[in-house]
Amino acid sequence: MPRRLIALAVAIGLASPAIAAADDENRVAPSADTATIPDATEKRVAPVATQEIGARLGLRMGGRTTPGGFSVGGVYLYQLTDVLWSDSTVSLSVGGGGAECFRDRGDDVVCDHGQLDGVAGGAHSGLRLVQREKQGFVPYARATIGVEVVSFADDDARGFSIPLTLGAGVRARVADRVAVSGGADLLIGFARLNRDIGAEPQAALIINFGVDFAL
């Protein structure tokens, strides 16, 4: 009897490695779908949009023959690369003021309007360079060229201008598809006006705030 028990124990000892190897071969590896379960608390990344539309509200400060006033506008943004967007806007600024154009001793028509006088409306198109996010804010720089209709109604003076706009600002995303922004633009160029005023320089500072929606 003891000899049989010893023989049985030896047989079990020799068979154990083979059984373990067979068990390893038959074991099913976890699939890629079930191997990792995302943490429910992981921060969700906002979707990336290649197109955005937005609205702008601000103040335009001109003077002399450059219209100024409260401004409203719309913007369309289209992503070209990781850091470069096309930037197209339409805008309208409306100010006050009275008749400020007169003839000087040389019989030339001279205008001396205030910073918030006149009306200007037009379309601008250009590029926007977006920088890396810093503490929740995304700085950007922009440059556009456009065509505007300018008017000083009380002087019956009107015409058109071709301005270049250079600006900078910051944006902050407040929802997955909504961002707010603030910036400043410098507008420079030339205008052609009637009433023998002729070609006149244009220069204005524009402070604006806006909201953009991803499409």
Word description of this protein:
The strands form two sheets. The protein has an eight-stranded antiparallel beta barrel with strand order 1-2-3-6-7-8-9-10. Strands 4-5 form a two-stranded antiparallel sheet. The longest helix has 25 residues. About 7% of the residues have low confidence. It folds into two domains: 34 residues, no CATH class; 164 residues, Porin (Beta Barrel). The radius of gyration is 35 Å and the shape is elongated. It has two helices and ten strands. The chain is mainly β.
Topology, please?
Blueprint: H1 2-26, H2 32-35, E1 51-61, E2 69-79, E3 84-94, E4 101-103, E5 109-111, E6 119-130, E7 138-152, E8 157-175, E9 178-193, E10 198-214
Antiparallel strand pairs: 1-2, 1-10, 2-3, 3-6, 4-5, 6-7, 7-8, 8-9, 9-10
